[in-house]
Amino acid sequence: MSTTILLALEVGSSCRELKSFKNASGFADYVWTELCKSYLGASDKDYIYNGLTEKLWPYFKDTQKPYFERIVLAITYDRAFICKDDYSEAARCIRQFLSKYPPNPSHSNHWADIADFFESKPKHESVGFIQSSVVGNLFRHDTYLHDPEFRYSPGYNSGLEFVEKNNCFNVFSNTPIASEE
Question: Which residue segment(s) compose the domain that 73 sits in?
Answer without folding.
Answer: 3-174
